[in-house]
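#struct-help
A.M.: can someone run this one for me? Single chain, 117 residues.
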Amino acid sequence: MTAQEFRRAKRRKVEQRIDVLDCMTELVIGRLSDISETGMLLILSQPLVSDALYQLRFKLTDAHGVDQAIEVGAHELWSDQAAAPGQVWTGFRFIELAAPNLAFLRSWIDAPGSQHI
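D.P.: on it. Structure tokens below:
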């Protein structure tokens, strides 16, 4: 069995740079590495508070080149040092995602040409 078979939701690898902002500070905390309809993996330059809740925002581009802002409530599940010095992998579970954003995210993940992991 592959890792994907153990996951509940299909994950799309992000190939372009997508910055993720903390809605409370309006600062970029990291960039998106992969995403599913239930959570995401970020690469950060510094660790966040372990097991904390965050309100995060990022933009995904649709098939017509239009940016769609996505805002999520997320729970930080785990963090681990990345191979590159000063970088941290951090996994989040979504705890709040508006229905229209969820529908857009599902179609974005399943878009033709998407690379899934």
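A.M.: thanks! The two ends are 13 Å apart (CA to CA).
D.P.: also worth noting: The first helix runs from residue 3 to 6.
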